Amino acid sequence: MAIVESTLTADVTTFRVEAYEKIDYTLQYVDGVFDPANTQLADVYRPWGRCLMVIDDVVDDLYGERARAYFAAHDIELTVYRLVVDETTKAWTTVEGIIDAFTEFGLVRKEQPLIVGGGLATDVAGFACASFRRATPYVRIPTTLIGLIDASVSIKVGVNHRKYKNRLGAYHASSTVLLDFGFLATLPVDQVRNGMAEIIKITTVGDRHTFDLMDAHGEALLETHFGHVDGEQHAASAELRAAAHEITYRSIQRMLELEVPNLHELDLDRVIAFGHTWSPTLELAPEVPFFHGHAINIDMALSTTLAEQRGHIDATERDRVLSLMSRLGLSLDSPHLTPELLERATAAILQTRDGRLRAAVPAPIGTCVFLDDVSTDELVSALDKHRTLVAELPRGGAGVQAFVDEGLPA
Ligand SMILES: NC(=O)c1ccc[n+]([C@@H]2O[C@H](COP(=O)([O-])OP(=O)(O)OC[C@H]3O[C@@H](n4cnc5c(N)ncnc54)[C@H](O)[C@@H]3O)[C@@H](O)[C@H]2O)c1
């Protein structure tokens, strides 16, 4: 729909334009996306007879051979661009390298690059697609838990700018997302944990039933990579796999329900911004950045304590949330979480959220309320209370493998 009105009088000459763009994309489950018997991926590229795949280098080491064999089996010529990126190089310069690869490949208008990797790869390469000729369509295959249940469900892409998380970016949906949870088999356990923080996010403020499932199966899901490998304590049973499917399916569904009416975030009261009020400043504050999941978890944990202090949830519910986080090895606190940082982070998020805090907190588990009027004094008193609570928990609320370099292979 588009409206163009023109006004022409003695003193006013104006054209007014109102137009809406359709956003249309598909998330499709595939069991074995690089299995030649599954044609979903080949179907996209057959019309061009070729494909430019931008793939996270670690994922290429693990799955590149399978991908090459897949395209060869379907007689589609494959060009591979190995993307080396971490949180500190999630930056515009990395986007430029991808854009150079598009140019070298001779990407034709409407031809869709394939992006394979975690949230980092899809955010950075997705932003390259948003920027290249202003909007280049693309296909995503997420390979991390964060990618599968969050980053590739969303239409947001972008990069960091200096110490500012995702400061440059775009709303640019991929035409197709192929969801293959089999990738979780090789995902390091610290990355599985990282993704579980996003599931805690959506369930704590959006879906009580799925929170209960996480509470019941959390440790087993972590150890077995959501039912994809046997662990020492837990086997990857069919029952566990079913719970994993229910949790991830419902998380995606709930996120879409909450986000789709507001894809361009015109309404800044966003339920799934739970954990994203102070964490954008916290995540990049240490010399070596936090894992995204740990940074948001610290924010969620503090927000939950604040919610109890405000009377939105009772102490038992608060402790259930904190206990689940702690049992999964997520960070609930950090020496970097200082009153000074909270004040700085509040000032930063007020700019992003049009002058209002809009801090999403559980009220109670499975539902959400937004807090606008949280003073620095109240925040500092919540932090004090939070510290006494987490002191009782294992590791004093510190996370397991909370920082990016602790997760890298030796
Ligand atoms: N766009 C969004 O809405 C959105 C939502 C959430 C997070 N994010 C962004 O996502 C980023 C984090 O993404 P992530 O957590 O997926 O991390 P990531 O992309 O850095 O991947 C984590 C690590 O796992 C490796 N890896 C990926 N898939 C693997 C597999 N199947 N097996 C073995 N190793 C594998 C990667 O090489 C990397 O070393 C952050 O920058 C965050 O801002 C974006």
UniProtKB/TrEMBL annotation:
Residues of the 3-dehydroquinate synthase N-terminal domain: 85-193
Domain 3-dehydroquinate synthase C-terminal: 195-342
Catalytic reaction equation(s): D-sedoheptulose 7-phosphate = 2-epi-5-epi-valiolone + phosphate
Cofactor or coenzyme needed: NAD(+)
Enzyme class label: lyase
CDD domains in the cross-refs: EEVS (cd08199)
EC annotation from Swiss-Prot or TrEMBL: 4.2.3.152
Keywords assigned: Lyase, Metal-binding, NAD, Nucleotide-binding
Signal sequence, renumbered to the chain: none
PANTHER family: 2-EPI-5-EPI-VALIOLONE SYNTHASE, 3-DEHYDROQUINATE SYNTHASE
Protein name per UniProt: 2-epi-5-epi-valiolone synthase
